[in-house]
Amino acid sequence: MESSLSLQPSWRVHYPFLSLFYFNVFCSCASYALILPSLWSYLIEGTYHDSLVAQVLTAFSIGEVIGALGFGFLRDRISTRSALLSTLFCGLIGTSLTIYASMIGESYKIPLIIGRMLQGVWNGGEQAVEQSYISEIVSDISKLSAISEIGIAGVCGYTLGPVIGVAISFLDMNVHQKFSADEYWSIGVFLFIINLTMILINWFSFQEIPIAMRVNRSKEYEGYEPPKVSGILICLLFSFCLFYGFTVQETITGPLVSDSTAKYTSSFGYSISMTYIYFILEGFVSVLGLFLISFLNEKIDDRILLAASTFLGVIGWFFFIDFEYKEISHAAFYIGFILISLEFSMARNAAFSVYSKIIGPYPAGWYMGLMLASGCLSRALTPYWAMQSIEISIKICAISCCASLFLSLLLVIIFWESCAPHPKNELFNNVILDFCNDSEASATTPLIYHRALSSR
């Protein structure tokens, strides 16, 4: 029986659910990227103050925190399929509210904020459910590759979203005397169709690994040591700092690049189209980083990849420091922007892989919810701070990001052993690998699994 449970090469393992997860992440990211560029124009059409933009963005981030924690907790208590479909229904309701908000005119503020919050619940909840399922099912040798490939699907969605938005922006048809199918209403309808399609495909396509195969649901594992608290805390702090730098980059790039009045810097002053070009560059570099870390997956320890990619971010933010007040050379800005984009794509996926291995054979839903919530919380708090600080000096943002990433890197090195994989991962990986490679294992694998435990 020992030989039948030997660890197999990752290229022989087939995880059918990953293709479905790639589709889900692609659609979710495309939806987010479709809304974000049109949000400002959509809101200024109403009678509310500019601050509503910040309120709507914050509502989405708060929704992500609620979704990550709530559905992460729920995921450990109900089936993955039920939890996943529940997140998608939250998105459908949220999208419906945003469509309603675009039709009722001046009183659209409350349904819009609630709708965006529910869309955030969908986004955060879906990530928590999918990441926890990957953590419990995918073997350690394939885990980082799976997470990276999901990241690639997400970046592709982020890239396609604005392209769809451009096509929709030309739509303006009078459907009824009191109703016009314009660019704002049409985006909501398009997102509704995406939500509904995702629900139908997941409803009929998602085949969950039997609960009997989950080592974390078996009484034999009650005596195993829990995940190391120090390793969990290091990863949560790392996620917060990582998303802090990422959010600062996203927040200040537009104002810096298109600053025609030299309010923040006198180095640029380009048109808004140059901002889109920078974010296209970010997407390209992110995909490159994800392919790179997927290639290095089986060759280098995830912790080394995490430390090395974080160091790239420290260097990148150093280039953003304006040693001369409000003066950044174009070369320094380009190099820094590329390094930061590369760092985020690589470090985020390496961090999730390290984190899932620390969790080991234990229920991953709540843990993954915490990990995602820490990043979402950082995204909710950072934009206000970033905009206030660059009005004083860009170096405040740059130095704070440098310091936070360097602190994260230092903690990972100090607590290196605390970030090591759970000692019981090997048996768990072997059982799941046998199940995923045996198309007729659904009935026999639980028996094989318990025999394997007793033989040890």
TrEMBL record:
Keyword Transport: yes
GO cellular component entries: endomembrane system; lysosomal membrane
Major facilitator superfamily (MFS) profile domain span: 1-420
InterPro entries associated with the record: MFS, MFS_dom, MFS_Domain-Containing_Protein, MFS_trans_sf
Alphabetical list of PROSITE patterns matching this protein: MFS
Predominant place of localization: membrane
Localization terms from the record: Endomembrane system
Regions crossing the membrane: 20-40, 52-71, 83-103, 150-171, 183-206, 227-248, 268-292, 304-321, 333-352, 364-386, 392-416
Membrane topology field: Multi-pass membrane protein
The entry's keywords: Membrane, Transmembrane, Transmembrane helix, Transport
One Gene Ontology MF term: transmembrane transporter activity
Presence of keyword Signal: no
Descriptive protein name: Major facilitator superfamily (MFS) profile domain-containing protein
Organism: Stentor coeruleus
